[in-house]
Design goal:
Blueprint: E1 9-14, E2 32-33, E3 36-37, H1 38-47, E4 54-59, H2 64-82, E5 88-93, H3 98-106, E6 115-120, H4 128-141, E7 144-150, E8 155-158, E9 164-168, E10 174-176, E11 180-183, H5 184-196, H6 205-211, E12 216-220, H7 231-248, H8 250-256, E13 259-270, E14 275-277, E15 280-282, E16 287-288, H9 296-309, H10 314-317, H11 330-343, E17 346-356, H12 366-377, E18 381-386, H13 392-395, E19 399-410
Parallel strand pairs: 1-4, 1-6, 4-5, 7-12, 17-18
Antiparallel strand pairs: 2-3, 6-11, 7-10, 8-9, 13-16, 13-19, 14-15, 17-19
Helix pairs in contact: 1-2, 5-6, 9-11
Bound molecules: cytidine-5'-triphosphate and magnesium ion.
The site of cytidine-5'-triphosphate (CTP) has 23 residues, from helix 3.
Length: 422
Amino acid sequence: MTDMTAPTIAVIVVAAGSGSRLGHAEPKAFVPLAGKSILERALEGVLGMRDAVQLIVVAPADRLAETRQISERAASARFDQLGRSDAAVVVVAGGATRQESVQAGLAALSPGIDTVLVHDAARALTPSAVFDAVVETVRASAAGVLPMLPVVDTIKRIDHAGIVHETVDRAELAAVQTPQGFPREVLVAALAAASANDIAEATDDAALVSASGHPVQTMGGDPLAFKITTPDDLRRAHLLLASDVSAASVTPAASAAPRIGTGMDVHAFDDTSPLWLAGLHWPGERGLSGHSDGDAAVHAICDALLAAAGLGDIGGIFGTADPRLTDAHGEVFLNETLRLLTEAGFRVGNVTVQIIGNRPKLAPRRAEAEALLTRLLHAPVTISATTTDALGFTGRGEGIAALATALLLPVSAQAAVLSWEA
Ligand code: CTP
Ligand code: MG
């Protein structure tokens, strides 16, 4: 009976080489790369694939236990993240050449596998999307597939003495990478044929598949799939990871994220004052008490904005002792709040405020109020209103409450925001 959940794709990661050109004491796959080993970085790329895979890691014979540990750690970290637990990891010992190591990996294929990718651990930064694309192309073409990049340098054919003989037309050349993907039978047959013919030194798998008469097609590779071969390559990988880390590290990412804040305010009705609400004067309506004009909607908005920016609240910024604020209207509060936000590196994304009370009826002047506040904050402000079904102080007509939510954007993230015409 077939197990429908078993993976049909295998990825063989060859990591059994010594890394003689890199020149470290440990085998290349175990050389540290920004806090992890080259191998672990490479496995993270594989494990980020869309589909579940059988992962076969080919390691130096004397490093099998360590390889198992690294592989299991990478697999469980990745599967925690993806919320799936379909890890199928096998670790086997490699051979004296890359080709023999691939052969050892093939011997560990599970029965249900129909597509095999072979990948150099040394291409440690290869993005997961490259693996997915290779799988797709193999399945669509039923051929071997290799990712490649065009050759950008001028290439010369030289002899052993370093004498130049000719310039090679680079339009006919490609720099090939891994992962290379194949239908299972094609790859297995090609390697069997090579060892039967005593060929043991192929540096990639497509060479053997081509030699066995099967088609191999190319697809666009990725510069990040470069092979760490020399100390310069390792430095480049370090630099790439360092710039990646700084782009994603907590502080800059946090400061690039939008921020929200909420604010609420309540004022009691006061028949001796005119009503100012949402920045507008409402003739004939009962006023609200307060040191300023008692505009609960504007005060709630200011609190939401200040909270989002981490600048405290309206009481802390606008002291009641300040004579400039006696009977001050919303515009004064909003302008000063906006000035503080701008200084702190934010702009307003949008604001919404809900007015809670029996009167005034908002609907006839909603558009007017929204336009005014939108103009003052240079960002969309929307206003809604509700009653509390005759319950509580608002229901009894003792006062008005307002509840605001504000979204702030760091100035550097402005490009991501749609513009708003008031
Ligand atoms: N590889 C392998 N078994 C071998 C030789 C190589 O699994 N006997 C693997 C390497 O670990 C590497 C990939 O094949 O991930 C590509 O090989 P290369 O970059 O040449 O690595 P090394 O052979 O380790 O390096 P060098 O040639 O500099 O010694
Ligand atoms: Mg080698």
